Amino acid sequence: MKLFDKYNRLNITATILTFVLGSCTFYFLLYFILINQLDETLQTEQQEIAAYVATHNTLPEIIKTRDQFTSYETAKGKTKTTFHTVTNTSGKGEEKLREIEFTIEAGSNYYLFKVAKPLEQTESLLQVIIGVTIAMIGLILLIGYWINRTMIRKLWQPFYQSIEQIKIYSITDLNTLKLDNVAIDEFALLNKSINELTERIQKDYTSLKDFTGQAAHEMQTPLAIIRSKLEMMMQNESVVAQNEKHIGDIEKAIHRLSRLHQSLLLLTKIENRQFMATEEIRLDQIINEKIDEYQELIETMQIVTVLNLQPVRIVMHPHLAEIVCGNLLNNAIRYNQKEGTIEIILEPGTLTITNTSPYPELDKDKIFKRFYRAGNKDDGNGLGLSIVKQIGDVAGNSIRYQYRDSKHWFLIGF
Predict the structure, then answer these.
(1) How is the beta sheet containing 109-118 ordered, strand by strand?
(2) Which of 78, 94, 115, 179 has the fewest CB atoms within 10 Å, measured from its CB?
(3) C-beta of residue 303 within 8 angstroms of C-beta of residue 333
């Protein structure tokens, strides 16, 4: 959920609850005030009747009106003054009245007076006031919602602009991320911090990339010297006879180091974007060429290859396409089993390479990381699939790994 939507929901919910509680409180408070005013009016009527009796020592003449109902009857004695809300049933229906009861002594007798006034006008006034209040609350909610939808979204616009710039930023680009300076202090501070952070990361990345390239380049000289010295030692038959195993181990180590050096150089070139997709290639032809290159190894392991290749053209650097196909096919052969199978399916937009293997499912979180090797194979450098992933990122292709039916699946989307 977006921050704006969450804030909007919380704000509207809190506002509605506040207004509902406030409206209920206001209703009962206003009702109490109006009833209290009506009771004061009835008390005034009581005082007028009491004053008339005190002056004339007789009861006043009862005059019936629409707004007031007065009646009296003989009482046994003096009682307390009380207020009631009663319902009067007449030909017009039920009518609520506010009534006061009090006793007055006239002559030697006590009389119980009842004076009532209708609540219709009071309730009508209450309804009008509540109606206006609810309308005002609704108007305030609408205005608040409009402000949230327009003003707050506008205030957050610099934040979303910064997010869009961060999305398209890549550390491999030569340009440093420069977020705009905005008028809102909080967003300005955020943009400044992100600019400084990416600048430091860019410098660290450049330094690391240069170090990797220089280290890989500097490895050429000692490798050439070691290889030359080893060849000189191998020309001495007595030395070879006495140290045949050690010389073989050294030769394997040099071979692995040479392949590692070539892989690191290739990764550096890919990261530096030295390969540009400038031409259209036939991917099915490249796959067939790689099958021919590995044919001898395939026959040695008695692997059955199943090919379903459609003519597919993609825009990609030819050397990178050869590396992708070669690395995937090499892995499918090296990690296969004797008399196993390799199935290659090429369709427009998708390349699928499947192989049997004695090894279980690979770790999906590590399979495309550098120097990750599965099983007990020790003749690889763990960079093959990492190079494939790096090429895919540069070329805009996707690569996925699956393990189904005791087979390893690699799917590339172009």
Answers:
(1) 69-75, 109-118, 93-106, 82-90
(2) 94
(3) yes
The model's pTM is 0.46
| Structural tokens at position 263 | 């892989």
How far is 34 from 130, CA to CA, in rounded Å?
A: 13
Cβ–Cβ under 8 Å, residues 81 and 101: yes
Rounded to the nearest 5°, which phi and psi values hold at 280? -90, 130
CA distances from 126 to 29, 43, 99, 363 (A): 11, 22, 19, 73
* pLDDT score recorded for residue 278: 65
How many helices (H) and strands (E) in the chain? 12, 11
Residues 210 and 252 in one domain: no
Whats the size of the chain, residue-wise?
Answer: 414
Domain that holds residue 298: 280-413
In this structure, the answer to whether residues 348 and 239 fall within a common structural domain is no
Segments of the chain with pLDDT less than 70 = 1-5, 90-93, 172-174, 212-213, 215-217, 256, 259-278, 371, 373-382
Average pLDDT, the chain: 79
Stretch (H or E) spanning 209:
helix 185-218
User: 3-class DSSP state for residue 218?
Assistant: helix
Q: Are β-strands 82-90 and 109-118 bridged in parallel, bridged antiparallel, or unpaired?
A: unpaired
Structurally, the chain folds into a number of domains equal to 4
